[in-house]
Write a structure and sequence with these properties.
The chain is an alpha/beta fold and 406 residues long. Helix content is 38%, strand content 18%. Its EC number is 1.14.12.17.
């Protein structure tokens, strides 16, 4: 990427933006929650893009509030938010966000700031944030333009949605099912980096809007197929949780076609070093980690490779066969937090319990590169353990499922 993150705002505008940072820290989520309701009411067609589960649970508003706060505190040097911009831009490209949607967001974001803060949102503050938003939006538009170009330029690459046929549907556990996908047109399709994801567009009967969900590619890169492994989520009466996952499990069969965008994401395995590799996952967070684990054994079999996975019990432990080491230097450890009788017979079962600081110290080397994925609680537990262990920051790599809420 060759995009400049040097702010062109004048000093007065930047000082105004920085002065609002404490306000965003206090009222940011209220503003962004109001923003999403306002924008989606005025532009219901955007419901095709946004995940309603993240709206109901507050994850999307919290994530946007955090992004605004980061922009406000780093307005002097926006290069500090470059990694976050790349992560968000990858998601936007996968969702097919277009430049013409940015003015809509800007209009409703500024209006929401004014409506929530009232008289505290002076004309100077709104004007400053209007300038800042335009500058930040332009950065995103440029980054995403490069991503669209790179995606289309790959061998077999494409932009937009392309139909893929479900060639195989395999149950992995009580909750997880894998879907093997091949292009319906029979033409070549691009490779991907272990850790990346694809977006599926779901046209669910009876639903007003299409639903888009991002699923990690759960197999090592193959010229033969893409694979996603989807956890069935129980549908609550008050939230849309599990709508697409249940639809995939119940309504999609072998031979059906799914609209798919090209692989995206910046959570990727680096196999160029010599240090040990440690992979950790919890539940369906195994999907990108399994891809990395299998690839590492193929491309770097001489390195020491560790995989630690935790699940509630063997019955919900998906992708277990993919966790079996095939390299002489690889080892797998399985931990169950609520094991059933007989679960201790599971291959590579280590012990009951969670992954914590003491367990990591006793099981893996500190000088490794760490890759991990799972629910927020798991991510923060591992992060706390690695920070307590003083593991170098550039050796820590992780991905949250859905927007990071704090």
């Amino acid at each position: 990427m060759t995009i400049s993150f040097q702010s062109q705002l004048d000093e007065k505008t930047k000082e105004t933006i920085k002065a609002t940072a404490p306000v965003l820290a206090e009222h940011g989520t209220t503003i962004t929650t109001h923003f999403y309701k306002r924008m989606l009411s005025a532009h219901p067609e955007l419901n095709h893009v946004f995940n309603p589960t993240h709206q109901v649970k507050g994850k999307q508003p919290a994530a946007l509030a955090n992004a605004l706060y980061a922009a406000a505190t780093h307005i002097d040097d926006l290069s500090a938010i470059a990694p976050a911009v790349r992560t968000i831009a990858e998601k936007h490209r996968s969702l097919q966000i277009t430049p013409d949607q940015y003015p809509i967001v800007g209009e409703h974001l500024l209006a929401s700031i004014q409506e929530v803060l009232g008289e505290a949102a002076t004309d100077d503050i709104i004007a400053a944030w209007g300038q800042a938003y335009e500058e930040i939006a332009e950065i995103f538009i440029k980054v995403e333009a490069e991503l669209y170009a790179e995606t289309a330029a790959q061998t077999g690459g494409w932009n937009g949605f392309r139909n893929f046929t479900v060639t195989s549907k395999e149950k992995e556990s009580e909750l997880i099912t894998s879907f093997y996908l091949k292009p319906a047109d029979g033409e070549p399709f691009p490779d991907f980096q272990p850790g990346q994801y694809i977006t599926i567009k779901a046209n669910i009967e009876g639903e007003t809007y299409t639903q888009m969900r991002q699923y990690s590619l759960s197999d090592a890169p193959s010229a033969n197929h893409y694979r996603i492994s989807v956890k069935r989520e129980p549908s609550g009466t008050e939230t849309p949780s599990g709508k697409v996952s249940n639809w995939l499990h119940d309504a999609i069969s072998e031979g059906d076609e799914l609209p798919v965008t090209a692989p995206a994401g910046d959570f990727m395995l680096d196999t160029s070093g010599n240090e040990p590799l440690v992979f950790l996952s919890a539940g369906v967070g195994a999907t990108p980690i399994v891809s990395m684990f299998k690839t590492a054994q193929q491309k770097a079999p001489e390195r020491s490779i560790y995989y630690i996975h935790t699940a509630s019990s063997a019955s919900v432990h998906g992708l277990a066969q993919d966790m079996e080491p095939v390299s002489a230097n690889a080892v797998t450890h399985i931990r169950y937090t609520n094991p059933a009788p007989g679960d201790e017979q599971t291959p590579f079962f280590d012990a009951a319990g969670r992954i914590d600081f003491e367990y990591l110290q006793a099981t893996v080397p500190k000088d490794a590169s760490f890759y991990f994925c799972g629910p927020e609680g798991f991510i923060y537990t591992v992060l706390d353990a690695l920070n307590k262990w003083d593991v170098a920051e550039d050796r820590i790599n992780y991905e949250f499922f859905g927007p990071k809420s704090n």
